[in-house]
Each structure stands twice: as structure tokens, then as C-alpha cells.
From TrEMBL, chain A:
Pfam assignment, any one: Cupin_7
InterPro entries: Anti-sigma_ChrR, Anti_sigma_zinc_sf, ChrR-like_cupin_dom, RmlC-like_jellyroll, RmlC_Cupin_sf
The organism's place on the tree of life at top rank: Bacteria
Protein name: Anti-sigma factor
ChrR-like cupin domain sequence ranges: 109-202
UniProtKB/TrEMBL annotation, chain B:
Name of the protein in question: RNA polymerase sigma factor
Residue span, RNA polymerase sigma-70 region domain: 63-131
Gene Ontology MF: a single term: sigma factor activity
UniProt keyword annotation of Transcription regulation present: yes
Species the sequence originates in: Skermanella aerolata
GO biological process: DNA-templated transcription initiation
Length: 225, 219
């Protein structure tokens, strides 16, 4: 089944242009692995980059540049990076939901990840990525038990969520594997995991969440999503 | 479009097999920087194919004459220091030379392919961050739909259509688009720089992108 909720064109533009940070890039590229439609859009935006590059006002290069370059053509090429893990997901049931590039970040086995309990039915695990320009960007895996509701909250910044397994509903929208959701400070929501199984998501936030429910807001100083 | 092109190094065997040191060791001839007139003959796509197939250093020189100064302009605009920009242009062009065999003219334009290499080099140079990319060979990848696979409309035609579409954009949209591609800035910084509300920047960019996509779809 193909995703129905996609990143905005502006986000895909940023990815194609190369101005997304590592964490957002991780969420976008992992969505791309699951979404041929968005791969096509990114390919279009890359060709747009190519056309703009051809049309840019040229800058003078040193007169010896070409000679220097030609002299280097026969130099040995740099050692290639290691071949990425290409084990079939079928080799290991726990890898099934996780395509590249995310798989390369979280290791081999979801069960060996150090999950931290956030509240009953919700666990999270930090993923080591660059913290971005603000230093506040975080990428995490989130594991939500069947039917569990995440307390009502809003965001001081933005939140990207990519569903890897299971699903959740948020208001009248349904999110399944490959679906991408984008929330900002306008969003005040309380997503609920589907009843029929655990929901595994990748989330990228650039500022902490704020709980907004009447009692839960009292917990803000203590809870850290 | 060629998703496999940029960023990752190919297996060692590919390159080793492609650089027949004996064939070119005796060729000390360095082509001159070509005049613009000399560039009219072959398209960048044809030059790249010649580089991959024949290890054609003259074709490489022509391609450098065309793309080198543009790559430098691109790198400078993204905030790379002038001293570093010249070295990066060399690295991009070296990668073009070594990876030319991965360029597939049926699936991508040369300009696109070179852009993705330059973009990734810029990220490597300027960022502490990595650029995550999906792996087209990953068994967990959801494959292209049959309709999407058949996009072999003439690349030359696609290229012309794209240039037309960009030329027809309203100036303020084209301007923002260039900033988005060249300045390596978040939209909020573009908005400050332009003295525009962030919402205006985003909606103009979105209009430009939707319009370009319609034009590219040929509707």
C-alpha cells in the first residue's frame, strides 16, 4: 500500500536543494524509500536545480584550473565507503518495518535498542543525528502500544512523524506505514495508536512538546518527550 | 531520473575496471579552455557519455569549460569561501570523471546529475551533518510504480521544457526559487533577508513549484 500523507512540496524542495538538516533529511529520505510518488517529485526538483545551475551567472575559475584537474584524472580514486547493509528485511523479522537510510542509524534489531519509557504504553529511543543549526533538533523512534492515546499537546517548533509500522489516527486523519505528518505550533493534537498492533514511528522535532490537557500541563516541567 | 547517481561511492571494482592506466598514460595533450563557440557542438549529455565510454579527456575539458565556472558560482553563493570553492570545483569534476559510467542519459539530464554531485559535495564541505539518502537497492524500498518507470521522454525535450517553465515564472517567484537552491538558508532566513513574512515566502515558493510541476507534466 502506498502512502497517502506526504511531505509538503517546500520540504521536498529543501531536501532536493540540500538545505535540510540531517534529522529532517533522515525522515524525508526514509519516507522516499516508501513513496515512489515523492521520489518522482524530488527527481523533478533535482532537475530544476540542474537547470538553475546551468543558468547561473558563471564565476571565473583560475586559468590553471583545467590543467590541474587533468593532471589529477589518473590519480587513484578514494577508497569507497563500506557497502550499506542490504540484508533482506525478510532475513530478520524485526528489521521488516525499517528501510534505509534509517536502518543504518538504528542498528540491526529493534529489540536491542535502548527504549526509554515515557508513559504507560509509550516508549522512545534517541537516534544519534546532527542537532541542526539551533542545536535543538532531535530524531527519535517512538513505540506506542495498541490503542494508546498520546496526551494532548502542541509544539514549540515543528514535528515530523513518519509511520514505520502499525498506524495511528489524529482527528479525522488515518496514518499508516509510509505516511508523513507535519505539525507546528498551530497543531494541538492527541494522536491515538490503532487497536490492532503496536505503532512504530520516527519523529523529528526542533523544540520540546508542550502538554496542553487540563491536568497534563502540570506535568510539563517533568515530562520530556 | 537517476537516484543512484550522487553521493555514494561505487564499489571499487567499477572504478578499477574503468581507468585503463595504460591507454592514457601517453596522452599528455591538454585541451585549451574552450571558447563558447566550441561548446555549441555537443550537449553536456553527449560529453558525459563520451567521458564514460571513451575516457575522453577533450570532452572532459569541454564539460569543465561549461560547468566549472557555474559550479564555482553555485558554491560561492552557498557560502563556501572562495579559496575552498576552487578546490571543491575540482573535487566535483573529479567525481564527474570517475563516476561518469553511472550517468544514464535515458533517465537524467547531465545538468541534474552534476547538480546532485555538487550539492552533496557542498553539504560534505559546509555541514557537520550527513545527508541521509534512500538506497535504491534496499529490499525494503517500495519500488516505482510501472507508470513512473516509463519516463523516458526525450531528456532534451524535458530540459527545454524546464528552461521555458523557469523563464515564464513571475520574477519574484523565480528569485525565491534561486535563493532556495543556492543560498543554503532555511525559509525563515530567506524571509528575513527579503523583508517578507515567512508565510509569503512559503506561498510564493509553493506557487512556483506547483506551476513548474504542471509545466513539466506537459498539461
Amino acid at each position: 500500500m502506498l502512502p497517502v500523507h506526504h511531505p509538503s512540496l517546500e520540504l521536498l524542495l529543501d531536501y532536493a536543494a540540500g538545505s535540510t538538516g540531517e534529522a529532517a533529511g533522515l525522515a524525508l529520505a526514509t519516507h522516499l524509500a516508501l513513496c515512489p510518488e515523492c521520489r518522482e517529485v524530488v527527481a523533478q526538483f533535482e532537475s530544476l536545480g540542474g537547470a538553475l545551475l546551468e543558468a547561473i551567472e558563471p564565476a571565473a575559475v583560475p586559468s590553471e584550473a583545467l590543467d590541474n584537474l587533468l593532471a589529477r584524472l589518473d590519480e587513484p580514486v578514494p577508497v569507497p565507503v563500506p557497502v550499506p547493509d542490504r540484508r533482506s528485511p525478510a532475513d530478520d523479522a524485526t528489521l521488516g518495518p525499517v528501510p534505509q537510510p534509517l536502518r543504518g542509524y538504528i542498528g540491526q534489531d529493534l529489540e536491542t535498542i535502548r527504549w526509554k519509557r515515557v508513559m504507560r504504553g509509550v516508549e522512545q529511543a534517541d537516534i544519534a543525528v546532527g542537532r541542526g543549526r539551533t542545536g535543538n533538533v532531535r530524531a527519535r523512534l517512538l513505540r506506542i502500544g495498541p490503542g494508546v492515546r498520546v496526551p494532548r499537546h502542541t509544539h514549540a517548533g515543528t514535528e515530523m512523524t513518519l509511520v514505520l509500522a502499525g498506524g495511528f489516527s489524529d482527528g479525522d486523519k488515518q496514518y499508516q506505514r509510509g505516511d508523513f505528518s507535519f505539525c507546528d505550533r498551530e497543531t494541538d493534537h492527541s494522536p491515538v495508536a490503532d487497536d490492532d498492533g503496536e505503532c512504530l514511528c520516527l519523529t523529528v522535532i526542533d523544540a520540546p512538546l508542550r502538554l496542553t490537557g487540563p491536568l497534563m500541563r502540570l506535568l510539563n516541567p517533568f515530562i520530556r518527550f | 531520473m537517476n537516484f543512484t547517481a550522487a553521493g555514494r561511492e561505487p564499489p571499487a571494482g567499477l572504478i578499477a575496471g574503468l581507468v585503463p592506466s595504460s591507454v592514457f598514460a601517453s596522452n599528455g595533450k591538454m585541451p585549451d579552455v574552450p571558447s563558447p563557440a566550441a561548446l555549441d557542438g555537443r550537449s553536456s549529455d553527449e560529453l558525459l557519455v563520451a567521458i564514460a565510454r571513451d575516457r575522453d579527456k577533450d570532452a572532459f575539458g569541454l564539460l569543465f569549460g561549461r560547468m566549472g565556472p557555474r559550479l564555482k558560482a553555485y558554491l560561492l553563493r552557498s557560502g563556501i569561501a572562495p579559496s575552498q570553492a576552487d578546490e571543491l570545483v575540482q573535487e566535483v569534476m573529479l567525481m564527474v570523471w570517475h563516476r561518469a559510467d553511472t550517468f544514464d542519459p535515458a533517465r537524467a539530464m547531465a545538468s541534474t546529475w552534476i547538480f546532485t554531485i555538487a550539492r552533496n559535495k557542498r553539504i560534505d564541505a559546509a555541514r557537520r551533518d550527513r545527508r541521509p539518502e534512500f538506497d535504491p537497492e534496499d529490499p525494503a524500498l517500495v519500488p516505482d510504480q510501472p507508470a513512473a518507470a516509463d519516463r523516458s521522454i526525450e531528456q532534451a525535450e524535458a530540459s527545454a521544457r524546464l528552461r521555458d517553465a523557469i523563464a515564464k515564472l513571475p520574477a519574484e517567484q523565480a528569485d525565491l526559487l534561486r535563493l532556495a537552491y543556492f543560498e543554503d538558508q532555511p525559509h525563515s532566513a530567506i524571509a528575513r533577508h527579503k523583508g517578507l513574512p515567512l508565510g509569503t515566502v512559503k506561498s510564493r515558493l509553493r506557487l512556483a513549484l506547483e506551476r513548474l510541476r504542471r509545466e513539466l507534466a506537459g498539461s
